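Database export, one record per block. Field names are fixed; values are copied verbatim from the stored entry.
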Amino acid sequence: MQMRSIRGKNLVGAGYDAVTGTLRVAFGKSGEYDYSGVPEEKFISLCRVPYPDNYYSKAIKGKFTCVKVVDPPEEPNVQEVIPNVAQGPHRDEGVRLPDAPSSIVVRQSNGGGVVRHGLSVGRCDAQSTGGRLMEVFYGEKDGVTFTEEGHAYFLKGARVPFSLTQILELSGISRQPTSAKEMAARPAAAKRGTKVHEYTLWLDQGELDLDDLKPYPEYLNRVIGWQQFREDFKFMPDLTMCEVPIAVRVNGMLYAMKLDAYGAIGEGEQTALAVVEKKCTAEEEDSHAIQTAGQAIAFESHAASVQMPLKRLVVYLFDKLNAANRYYRVVEHSDRNDQKIFVGAALANVYWRSQKGLLK
């Protein structure tokens, strides 16, 4: 059986016999195992998803007959990486955020063995980032922290000058409330957005009981909308990256952010990586495309290393069903000029004005 290299933490290879329907998986420490009666599309997905260990645990382990290739039959124990959180939507202590993974495994071009690379940490090759010099830092492991007080980000103890949100606001790209009515409604909208983000994260972590939200339809329906999106688009979030503080330095200009969701979308040969922004409004704004462009910069190197396309999506969550009988709508942003606008018209603009003392 011909084996293919796998970019997993524990999984290092996989092979498939289409005649017998046998899937063979190889682990770095515990050897090889055969699973019988496995559909071929699961083998394809296993080879393409960015985090195959999680996919193996959810879609293969325990669902098919397993036999160890050399040793007596037993099934390997692969621990799925899921952060520890308190249950239910009524907790007050918040979510403990895990670190980003320290390495990924990608296939070699000659088909032999596996090579481990850092997950986009450290300065990237300028050629691989469209001519830009870029550094990306993920979570506390790389020295990135966030404090609610002042909504401040820090990189190795030093405050990051601007968040992604501030870059969009100060550059004039994102729309700000102008009327008294809009300004009065802003605190309630911000609170709703924070809660919906929190509940959808708990849903992804398997820690949310939807019955607890039934008395609150404005929250419940938006959470159901997120659930519908995940099912309809076959989106599998990477829980190690959700709401993790990230710092990005582009051509010497530093900014920071936390991502709503990042993971694999689609199945089989159509699988891609996706940066996903959640919005608790039906109003689409041009700035959302620039926002996702600023987010996607942090994952370009990762997508290139695993040879997968990187998509940018905004999911608008509603409290009432739309014409498609869904509580959500998806907009994909694919204009490559969005990133040029973010770096030039937003990031460089704000840094230049800051250096000239022109920021109010």
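Remark 1: Residues 79-128 have pLDDT under 50 and may be disordered.
Remark 2: The longest strand covers residues 272-279.
End of record.
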